[in-house]
Amino acid sequence: MARRLGVHIDSATAIARLGPPLEQELAHWMPAEEVPAAADLYRELGLEIAIPMTTAMAGAAEAVALVRRHGGRVIVVTAKHEVSARRIVEALGLEADQVVGSVFAAGKGAAIRSFGAAVYVGDHVGDIAAAKAGGALSVGVATGPYTADALRDHGADVVLSDLTGFGQWYDGWRGPEIEAVSTVM
């Protein structure tokens, strides 16, 4: 994409900042007036290139299945463009009840609250802010750009090293008295 647009994008730097909306990252590399067209191009190319290379995080399918087994709903709330996010979720074979895209950090709070989610799982400090804004318990997963300590320092209620630990945590948290919860992942 960078070659096609004639701009330099340091991929290591961009990857280190994953999490915020695409347009925010692109603004680091090009004039503001070029960002919308660049984002459209990225999404077009990204779906063709990224989806076949994308794999589900270890423990993701099991986490979704566990929430469903207990009668909960799985809602994906993401900074990714909604159409792209839906396609990725489908390609991974994950079953989400709803996908909400193009929201970041505390901006996710309204969606989290509207679904009545009790738990919000994410790997970015923005996800901790999202959970707090949405009135949900924040479960930080140290698989993204932030360490477990950084997630704790930003207020995560629970920190897991990866999603493979979600099942044990969820079963313990849920307890026998809770019949169903909406979990946002």
Automatic annotation (TrEMBL):
Keyword Hydrolase: yes
EC number per UniProt: 3.1.3.18
Pfam families: HAD
Gene Ontology terms for molecular function: phosphoglycolate phosphatase activity
GO biological process assignments: DNA repair
Keywords, alphabetical: Hydrolase
InterPro entries linked to this entry: HAD-like_hydrolase_sf, HAD-like_sf, HAD_sf, PGP-like_dom2
Protein name: Phosphoglycolate phosphatase
Source organism phylogeny: Bacteria, Bacillati, Actinomycetota, Actinomycetes, Streptosporangiales
